[in-house]
Amino acid sequence: MRKSLQLGTALQLVWQTTPILLVQLGVYLVFWIATLIYLAAVIGLAVLLNAIHGLLALIVVIVGLGAMSPIYNLAYRYVFYVIKAAHLVVMGELLTHGQLPAGQSQLAWGKQQVQERFGDVSVMFVADTLVKGVLCSFTSTVYSIASWIPGNEMRQLANVANRVIRYATTYIDEAILARAFWQRDPNLWKSAKDGIILYAMVWKPLLINAVALMLLSYVPFVVVMVLIAAPVGLVLSAVSTPVAAWSVLALLVLAYLIKVAVGESFAMAAIIAAYHREIQGLQPDPAIEQRLDSISADFRKLKERITAT
Q1: Predicted confidence (pLDDT) per residue in 35-93, tens digit
Q2: What would the pLDDT profile of 91-107 be if each residue is shown by its tens digit?
Q3: How far apart (Å, rounded) are the C-alpha atoms in residues 43 and 37?
Q4: FRET pair for 94, CA 20 to 30 Å: which of 126, 144, 246, 271?
Q5: DSSP the chain
């Protein structure tokens, strides 16, 4: 497993793609500042409404905080995913070919590759969603530790573990899409299909690595919390408990965004390198393709895209 994790290669890829990583960090920082302004507006409106009725203030706070998730999802699909897709392409190119064409920024070159192959980043997002769906179906079929465990409490813990494992597959779909670029296959849908089949042939070490990398991706989050959020919350609590609480909430958002930008970029680099290593010399197995056909509607949709392209 140590060889499969490819941590050294991941560090090298992250270092080589520092320019695009800094862009990603900058965009997330802008989003964080916008989030602070949004939270300040929610708090200000809640304070004003509290003078009229406390229930109105509570409703505003609940709705305002609840809206943060869809706002982030919207920003992810149309802003963050564009940078992530470009980063993925650049990493795959550096891993397999060692360099990028001279004279272009990493972000511009990565976006250009996505547009040339998929036509639009939103189409790649659709492909990513389909690949995720196939991986979840496959993982649920081949790996489940809940059905045979006696006792409700233990079964609930096993269900949590299963959800963690399914969440970890998000790094694997990125590796499959990266392969679709480094293969230079004119039909990216076919390449994605073959990439899924190859993963299904060597899934065990890659799934274990994906879980380990998912946990490692939280290191930046913990570091920010320990070095910034906890001390700030402690200091401000002496002045005002509500101020301390809102400050810690804001720093939690910052820590999460840094985790996404840095931690997940490292995990993505590691799983791309591990996937590249595990599938060397393999060819898609027709028997595995038939199995995926039988268990995943998303796999069948992916195959339909091949003939439609």
Answers
A1: 889 888 888 888 888 877 778 888 888 888 888 888 888 888 888 888 999 999 999 99
A2: 999 988 888 887 788 99
A3: 10
A4: 126
A5: -HHHH-HHHHHHHHHHTHHHHHHHHHHHHHHHHHHHHHHHHHHHHHHHHHTT-HHHHHHHHHHHHHTHHHHHHHHIIIIIHHHHHHHHHHHHHHHHHS---TTS-HHHHHHHHHHHHHSSHHHHHHHHHHHHHHHHHHHHHH--SSTT--SHHHHHHHHHHHHHHHHHHHHHHHHHHHHHHHTT-S-HHHHHHHHHHHHHHSHHHHHHHHHHHHHHTTHHHHHHIIIIIHHHHHHHHTT-HHHHHHHHHHHHHHHHHHIIIIIHHHHHHHHHHHHHHHTTT----HHHHHHHHHH-HHHHHHHHHHHH-
